[in-house]
Amino acid sequence: MNQDLERSKAKERYAAGKMRQHSTRALFFVGGFGAASWAPLVPLLRERLAIGEDVLGMLLLCIGIGSLLTMPLSGAAAVRFGCRKTLTLAGTFFALFLLALCLVDSMVLAVVSLLVFGAMMGCIDVVANIQAVLVEKAAKRRLMSGMHALWSVGGFAGAGLFGIWVGTLGLTPFISTCIATGIMLATLSIFSRHLLPFGGEGGGAMVAVPKGIVTFVGVVACIAFLVEGAIMDWSGVFLTSVRGFDMSLAGTGFTVFSAAMLIMRLLGDATVQKLGQKPVVLGGSLLAFLGFLMVIFAPSQLLLYAGFFAIGIGSANIVPVFFSLLGKQKDMPISMAVPAVSTLGYLGILMGPAAIGFLAHQTSLYAAFGLLAALVAVQAIIAAYVYKKVL
Questions:
Q1: Residue 347 CA: distances (Å) to CA of 131, 314, 323, 343, 353
Q2: What span, in angstroms and rounded, lies between the C-alpha atoms of 24 and 288?
Q3: Long-range Cβ contacts of 159-165 (<8 Å, 24+ apart)
Q4: Fewer CB within 10 A of the end CB, N or C, for the chain?
């Protein structure tokens, strides 16, 4: 009788653990889906406000500012209110303000809406990673790469479905955004109840400032996100203005890079489990470095695209592996370490395109992409130091 009761409880714990894992993946999906659903609305916002590229660029900075304001505070919110409440509230506002951005027709409303939208995006990014670290520790097996893969899946789904709804079915952008908002809210309603009611141990501070080994992890994340942001914004310019590709092929480099990242993240947990964290990170950095050399020096299109693919494969699991590593370090509690690293990573996304643009203007895009290759090499050196201290 007691054995049957124990087996029943074990099955319940297993089922609850699986639902927590699925709910975590669902929140990563919501983050990627919402970000991708916003991208097609940018030209529509510009048209409604009748503004130029310069003003639009400044306006879009509000998303980054909003994220940077909430990221350092999100860990404290998760500790105080729990991952469940924090993610449910942030996800709901994220979805609603996506819809609001389809309607705003004044500069003031646009600034406020973008600040809140960015703030909720940053909060989801941080607290979903806190939830993922805690769930992975409880499961005692690799899960983080698969979690991050769902962000990419959400991004592909959000971008692809908007094209289908507007381009194929002829729906208006407003109706398609209503559908996207409904998908996000429905996902939250299904999975939010299974999120963790707690958010890790408190660290005694409201604002997450990196210290100790967490600082080095943050620098690795900063470089990884800087590289990703630079490829997203500058690969098209590199292909068309430097390598002489037709404008119709401008987005192909980033598409190959993104596809490689998604594939490798879906396979990432099994790969890390088989090969180990250190070989995946250091080997991935080396592969990304060689990929940049191929992009810069490749004499043919095939080798050039192979370079973008190699960068995506090599870079895919560096950030997920290092977020997992935060669960093993002792310098900061998880609730503070994750937002500190996320903030540094997001700084990389914001700084990357601007830094590449400045260097390209002063020298050339060849030199700028060479700098990215050098940063990947520096990333490998820092990663080796982190593993020496943590493992």
A1: 22, 21, 16, 6, 11
A2: 28
A3: 159/36, 159/37, 159/39, 159/40, 162/36, 162/37, 162/40, 163/40
A4: N
Q: What is the pTM of this model?
A: 0.87
Residues carrying CATH 1.20.1250.20, the chain: 1-194, 212-390
Rounded Cα gap, residues 220 and 375, in angstroms: 10
Helix (H) or strand (E) holding 317: none
- Both structure tokens of 274: 């088989």
Which CATH homologous superfamily contains domain 212-390?
Answer: MFS general substrate transporter like domains (1.20.1250.20)
C-alpha torsion angle, residues 52, 55, 56, 59 (rounded to 10):
-160
Are the C-beta atoms of residues 169 and 302 closer than 8 Å to each other? no
The pair of structure tokens assigned to 385 is: 């130091």
Q: Please tell me the predicted confidence (pLDDT) of residue 192.
A: 94
Between the CA of residue 156 and those of 132, 139, 180, what are the distances in Å?
21, 28, 13
How far is Cα 348 from Cα 276, in angstroms, rounded to an integer? 26
Over residues 42-71, mean pLDDT: 85
pLDDT digits (tens, 9 = 90+) for 128-162: 999 999 999 889 888 999 999 999 899 888 878 88
Fold of 1-194: Growth Hormone; Chain: A; (1.20.1250)
In angstroms, rounded to a whole number, what is the distance separating the alpha carbons of residues 380 and 270?
A: 22
**Burial bucket for residue 308 (CB in 10 Å: 0-12, 13-18, 19+):** buried
Exposed/middle/buried for residue 37 (C-beta within 10 Å: 0-12, 13-18, 19+): buried
Distance of alpha carbon 174 from the chain centroid: 26
107 three-class SS: helix
